[in-house]
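Exam revision sheet. Question 4 asks you to relate a sequence to its structure. Input first:
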Amino acid sequence: MTLQILNNLSLKPYNSFAIDVTAEQFVDVHDDAQIREALLYAEARQMPLLVIGGGSNLLLTRDREGLVMRMASRGVRIVSEKGAQVVVEAQAGEAWHPFVVHCLELGLVGLENLSLIPGTVGAAPMQNIGAYGVEIKDVFHSLTALDRQTGEVRDFLGHECAFGYRDSLFKQHPGRWLILRVRFALSREARLHLDYGPVRQRLLEQGISEPTAMEVSQAICSIRLEKLPDPAELGNAGSFFKNPVIPVAQAQALKVRYPGLVAYPQGDEVKLAAGWLIEQAGWKGFREGDAGVHRLQALVLVNYGHATGRQLQSLALRIQADIDQRFGVELEMEPNLY
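Answer key, C-alpha cells:
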C-alpha cells in the first residue's frame, strides 16, 4: 500500500473554522491511483469516508469515525489554445487563490473577480463559487470526476453540471462524485466585469481608469481583506449564509416595511442581502463564549479560539429562526455540516 494512513489526527489544521475534532484515520491522496486505493481501503473495512479539500466550506460538529481523505493532488497545465481562447486545467487539490494568481501571471483573463476565495479548485465547481458578478459557471469549460458508485471516470461539460446559485449536480448528490480536475475557459483578451460598484470605486480611488485583470484582482483582494477576517487569524468559513432569493411581491412588501432593504433583481425573483438582514436583526458583532458573528461582516460566523462546531451550529440556527420570525425569510447555510 502506498498510502500513509495517520491515526487519531486532530483536524484543527485542516478546516478554516479551526474546530478541534479528531479523525479516526486520515490520509492525503495525491493522484488518481491513491484516490482509488483510499476508496478501496475504506470500502474493505466498511469505514465511513469523509472527503475534504481546503476545509473552507465545512463545519465539523463531532469527531470523525472512519477515514478522512484530503484531496492533495497538484498540477496546472494549458490544455488548448485557439486564438485568444485558452483552456487551463488544474488538479482538484490546487489551492484556489494561488491558481487564480498563476493564471493572471500567464496573462489569462476570467478568474480575477474570484480572487482570494478560500478553498481548492476541486471544491469550486461543487459550490459554483462566485463573487463580484462572476461565478464558476461563467468561466467553466469541463471537469473530470470519479463516480464512487460505479468506479467510472467521466467528463462533464457545463450544461451537465446543473449549476445554480452556490449549487451544482455534485452538491445535489453528496458523496457520489469525486472531482479530480477542472478546466477553465479563459482568454488573453480583457473582458473585465466591473459592474459591482465597490470594485470600480476602489480602482478609481487608486487612479486606475482602465484596469488590467491583475489590477482588478488586487482591488478585490484589498476589499475582501477589509471586509472578511483571515482564517489564519480568526477561524471562519467566509460567508456562512446564502443570499436568499424570494418572490418579487414578497420583496416589495418587505421594501415598504424596510425602505433600506438591500435587494437585487434576479430574473423573475429578487435576491436579498443576507448580511443586511442579519445586521438589522442586531446580530452583527454578537459573541457568546468563543462563537460569534464578525464585527465588520454580519454574514461571517467566527471561532474566537475554542468554539465547538456544535456551538457555531447552534448560533447559526438561532440566527435563522430570528430572521424567519422578523422578515419571513429563510436563510440557508453555505458550509456543509458534518
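Marking note for examiners. The domain at 76-227 is CATH 3.30.465.10 (Uridine Diphospho-n-acetylenolpyruvylglucosamine Reductase; domain 3).
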